[in-house]
Amino acid sequence: MENQKTLLYFTLFFIAYLLWAEWQKDYGPQPVAPVAVESTQQNSSTIESGVPSAVTVPGTIVTREKTTSAATSQRITIVTDVLEVEIDTRGGDIRKAILRKYAVDADKPEVKVELLTDAEVNFHIAQSGLVSANQKTAPTHNDIYTAEQLTYRLAEGVDEIKVPLHWVGNDGSKVTKLYTFHRNDYTINVDHNVSAGQSGWSGSQYMQLFRSQPSDENSSMFIHTYTGGVIFNDEIKYEKIGFDDIQEKNLKSEMEDGWLAMIQHYFLAAWIPENNGKNLYFSRYNAQADRYTLGARSAAKQLMPNEQGTFNSRFVAGPKLQYKLQEIEPGLELTVDYGVLTIIAKPLFWWLDKLHSIFGNWGWAIIFLTITVKALFYKLSEMSYKSMAKMRKVAPRMKQMKEQFGDDRAAMSKAMMELYKREKINPMGGCFPILVQIPVFISLYWVLLESVEMRQAPFALWLDNLSVKDPYFVLPVIMGVSMFIQQKLNPAPVDPMQQKIFQIMPFAFTAMFAFFPSGLVLYWVVNNILSITQQYVITKRIENEK
After folding, report:
1. What is the extent of the structural domain holding 373?
2. Which of 282, 320, 20 is CA-nearest to residue 127?
């Protein structure tokens, strides 16, 4: 009965893993970034204005003045083939970003995903600016720019849109903040072109994401992904900076190059500073507004009188298309977070993507992925099913032995070992194949859950969205029936308690899988059907042997 126990252990392990993942979300330890804690006794104007500290240049006097301009700002609207963006002339902030190719709900394709918004609910904006030894010579996100026009639209045959914003300092210095949008691209170039005044100029560029903690209305025990901050560079690799981390302490870490992002299920907003040296990564929590800041400040530049200089950066606002992300910047594809089993999940997604390019349908891609995985584990499964078939064949004799020995467990175990030896049965023969497949099942769970490519992907008939549960619960019921059939092919447990547990399992799994993404349930159904076919053939062959 060892195979029955192994299946039970696998079931309990899988459920325990999902419960552990949910527990980690709320109570688990958060990753600790290699940072120094910034003193909480900050300059009050820094906290109020949200502007990072300026770089002190030798021979200069640092002045920290909060911008009090009462000038009225304007909104600039930019529409490309993939984005609809609103930029405020106050600071040149990106106050809204709509993803034109992604609907919130498949049933309402006209309502698009609003990744950035300055609405009170799910507030999330992107800010950038310059800081210098003298704040009057550098525009922060509190200063007003002038715009050349208020509406831009990407025309047919045009590959990019340039949106310039202008600012003039008290000392005659000039800054042009230039946004460049590209066709079929979620990456926006953000450049600050500085013309120094008569007394020269010194300072640096900063970029930050400023947001509230989002509501988790769509999260459940079985469908939950990380939402929060991330920083990356070649040294520390991928480091999560959660909202709790930001609230507990201020991040202040100097790193070579890298990038920062706020990620959520399927989508991300990321700042990529120019790769020309060390950047200071920082975070802040505004308790009064209950909002979080994650940002970076570039290395300082010093310009001679009337000299010109440029700060470059890139801003990404869009879906987590991993092959596109790795082209934009190394490591950015890691925001598609498959967890500890990434080493297995990535090849699974690669093959799934190849199958999709052949069939043009993610449902068929999942079916043929299941067939591929089943083929890879064919020999291991055969070992398991042979063991189960032999156990099933001797089940009547084991029942007689239990009646014969009663509560004498030692005698019962000795008799069973002799029976296994005589019939050439390995009671552990079915364990290893099942254990090997556990990581594959969990990896595929995360591939189907995390990959935006399968978001709202239709299959056939009533299955019009593989990323959400089956609306009519047809697949979970089929899955439950297939589990019941599999149990009939397995040797019946001798222990009455095990018998009751296994009778309940198909119903318990049906109820649990009713809330899983239908793409994952489709995989499980196809896998069960293939397993039943293989096991039936092997069982009949073993039973017909003399």
Report:
1. 2-20+345-544
2. 282
